[in-house]
Amino acid sequence: MRVFVAGATGVVGRQLVPLLIDAGHEVVGTTRRESGMQHLRAQGVIPLRIDMFDHDGLAQAVAESAPDALIHQLTALSDWNLADNARVRREGTRNLVDAVKKAGVTRVVAQSIAWAYEPGDTPADERMPLDLDAPEPRSVTIGGVQALEDIVSEIEQHVILRYGLFYGPGTSHAPGGRTAQQIRDAQVTANEGVTSFVHVVDAARAAVLALDWPSGTVNIVDDEPAPAHEWMPVLAQAVGGPAPERVAGRAAWERGADNTLARTKLGWQPRYLSWRTGFADQS
Ligand SMILES: NC(=O)c1ccc[n+]([C@@H]2O[C@H](COP(=O)([O-])OP(=O)(O)OC[C@H]3O[C@@H](n4cnc5c(N)ncnc54)[C@H](OP(=O)(O)O)[C@@H]3O)[C@@H](O)[C@H]2O)c1
């Protein structure tokens, strides 16, 4: 199949491209940067330099590429600006879906998140509603997620991957990343809030498999949702920092997510079963 990967140079895109090529797919991949073009060429991808906010240019590029499927791995998190990221989710996704519709593409796989569920005390499964009553600033993220998921659902065959928090090469949790540095600088505390993680290799594996999944929304998280006071000391050890100070309390939505659907019905199982061993393998 010819697969159009929007966001081919991001932390998931970089892992995804070789897996798609190994699986026999032809890959068209996007970036805004010349360095990204070179990287994609070297990976054996047909590179496309395009900004997702360029509605007409994108429509033309997708039409000329004539893909069979779209994998949407766009985010704008390099500067940790959640408003920028929400804009990419709303406007970038709108433009992308308009473009693939016009080109007659009927299959899309898209990146969402597994921590947008309403408050609760247990890991959320896919039937739980999104946290649409969240106050600011969380409402900015939830609004972006809702928009992305609604727009992607306009395509006949759509799989929305609600990913856990990423770790692995290039992420903020890797030794060179932002969270790792904050831990080394003793700038963070460890509360009781529960997080579900996923290694970017497992995130990419799910996107390849999802090309053949039925339409729907799927949590892609590892097997061990855990409170910060459990996972942070393990991450601190992996990145060479002091164990963060433990504090009480959590936000009510910090509940983690459940991977039963992906694991038991769709044939995806994480290679990195838990952050407990995975944090040491991020290069
Ligand atoms: N679930 C999660 O935990 C999660 C999800 C996503 C990201 N993150 C974190 O966020 C940080 C940054 O992620 P990242 O390295 O993947 O970078 P990023 O800046 O979020 O970019 C991701 C991809 O989107 C593309 N992109 C962004 N805006 C675009 C636009 N307007 N037009 C076209 N393409 C656009 C980028 O292409 P270019 O080559 O043009 O930059 C890149 O391919 C990392 O620490 C990562 O772990 C976490």
Automatic annotation (TrEMBL):
Pfam families: Epimerase. It comes from the Bacteria. Gene3D superfamilies: NAD(P)-binding Rossmann-like Domain. GO terms for molecular function: aldehyde dehydrogenase (NAD+) activity. Residues 3-215 form the NAD-dependent epimerase/dehydratase domain. PANTHER family: NAD(P)-BINDING DOMAIN-CONTAINING PROTEIN-RELATED, PROTEIN YEEZ. This is dTDP-glucose 4,6-dehydratase. It comes from Longimycelium tulufanense.
